[in-house]
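Standup notes
- HV: blocked on the assembly model, inputs below
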Amino acid sequence: GAGVSQSPSNKVTEKGKDVELRCDPISGHTALYWYRQSLGQGLEFLIYFQGNSAPDKSGLPSDRFSAERTGGSVSTLTIQRTQQEDSAVYLCASSQGRDRLIFSGNTIYFGEGSWLTVV
Amino acid sequence: AQKITQTQPGMFVQEKEAVTLDCTYDTSDPSYGLFWYKQPSSGEMIFLIYQGSYDQQNATEGRYSLNFQKARKSANLVISASQLGDSAMYFCAMRDAGSSNTGKLIFGQGTTLQVKP
């Protein structure tokens, strides 16, 4: 597609329920990232997928968080047994191929985010 | 460890004037890239400008320019001729060669810019 697409755009869930957030990256982008942004805060890295390589899960805050990427394209971030502190905007981003820092064209493009509220 | 610092939580600027948003960074890797993103109230992160550590000249993109001072490890964003639509939160971010294999961008805490008419 033209840009990174995320769904749902807004989700209100009860504490203890599981939620799934979906990300559809820009066509042809092999790298996909999930970030979390709490109210008024900066972005916190969660997980990174690059092609068929093992994902970098170093940013996942607990084992309640998991993500998968099927067919090298769409990704799903799952939060199990949601807690109120999970309330945040979850941003997905994608970029082309392996990072080549000297090439400014390898920019990370973000979706509009999924706003999660746990009540 | 990599770190990005934005010391200005909020800034005001008069319409049509220029404004500088500060960003300092810390990395031990000689190869890195610096990014600025704009986040309006809608929440989308909009890429503005990129500076590579080996770039000889400061990056410019329209009204945006990056004042890159490598020795000071600073990468300030300059917005010229501010417009009301520039009101947003601005994030500085960095990725170094060590994190390029993981793709991780490290973000600062952001600066909220308000443009006054």
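- HV (later): unblocked. The two ends of chain B are 41 Å apart (CA to CA). The first strand of chain B starts at residue 3 and ends at 5.
- Next: hand off to the docking folks.
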